[in-house]
Write a structure and sequence with these properties.
Elements: H1 8-22, H2 24-29, H3 35-46, H4 49-52, H5 63-76, H6 83-97, H7 109-122, H8 128-137, H9 144-157, H10 161-167, E1 177-178, E2 182-183, H11 184-191, H12 194-202, H13 210-223, H14 226-234, H15 259-262, H16 269-281, H17 292-305, H18 308-317, E3 324-325, E4 328-329, H19 335-343, H20 346-354, H21 359-368, H22 372-380, H23 389-394, H24 398-406, H25 421-429, H26 439-450, H27 453-461
Length: about 475
Amino acid sequence: MELLGLPTEIFQDILHQAIVARGIKRGVRLRLVNNVMQALYTFRLLDSVHSLYDKRRPPRLSKAVLISYIGHRVMHEPANGNPLLNCLRRLAEDIHDRQNVDDRELSTVETCLDKLCSPWAVSWTFSPLKLFEKILKRESKVNEDEYRNHLFAAGLCTNNLSIVQQYMLDKDNLRDDNLLFGRYNTLAARYSGKEVLEYLLTTGVPTVNRTLRIGLFLDASEAGRADIVRFLYNFKREEVPWDFNRLKPNGYYSSEANILYMALNTPSLEVATFLGELRRRCPIRDEGKIDGMTVQLRVYRSIEAGHLDTLTYLINLGAHAQGVTHHGPNARGNDPIRIASKLGHTAIVEFLLAHGADAQAAITIAVEYGHTELVQKLLQMGLTPIDTLSNAAAGGYLDIVRLLLDAGADANESIGPMEHTAIFNLLIERGADLHSKGTTEECIERAWKDGLESMLVLLKEHGVDVKDTGST
């Protein structure tokens, strides 16, 4: 039987024992080509990451990896283990037991947990790594009052009206923060349906909670939920009209007066178009606020969300494809192309390049983050890779290393200490010279210093005397 044919539990235990036996340092360095093995290695190593990294320079781990890891820990935490991990599992189980019968997205405890993790992936300001640290440092048990708060937040995330109704009366302020999920009103605007929103807006008030309606409208706009934005705008509008020009007694505009300006922070073209219609119907006195920086912020949001249609609309409005701050165009170093390349949005990268964005920044970052399709597209456009091979090799991206070599990258470019035999062989095949002055000594020194056994074997196979001279 092949290794991957073993039951998951046995396979995972084998990997766990292998890492324990060979050491964390080597496990971090080792580049594995199998995705399943890579994920399990990553999960095991993350158990200690909070104590290993320099707080001033945290590790560059994607939100997806950390969220996946937290989910893995939640489902495998012992009953007497971490209180918050067990709390998350209990929440997922409660949501599953009280789900709507026809909700296929919540058909298992695991899918319920995935849904509960959704808020961690979308917020610009939220850091899963910081949440991870808070969770792991928690020692005290989760009491029932705290659990009810978490369950209310979970009900908003999963659009569960019965849970929201059961625990709503305990909430004095929906703008309060929940430790695990963030603000309650933001959760409602992003994930709850119209029935839940109607309940929130009308509970404890004669007609409608006007302040809450404003907050939900803004958060739904930022989330790009066009149907919910329209619903909130029209909700009891006849009884409680919107007043977009209302001034406070001190002469400053109220939150409602600023709402059409603030709501422009949306990645959705449909929402942006709807807001434009409202602005034409409801003239706003403070027109000067719709400045270049506001439009540019929307550029970043539309790129992060992968909305090319919205980006096209904004560029046509005059936004800069190179980025802009109060210092002028390009002052932030090509932020739009960097964001798009980091996320692997190929169509958006092509669009930005056509509007003057920095091509070298695009290929450098695409290589660094392992986006093979994007790298291939950029090379086909005639871009010349400069000092990118080391990043591709350091990431273990064999396909990208091959693409860069095909495009003329120097196989002798330094790639740092690692242990990826396939990349090693490819570099030798493409002309890397192990016997050039200084190269042999450096290879041997690094291999012995970092315990790269497979590299020592390969060096020996290519005629290198790998005896440890003790120089390290």
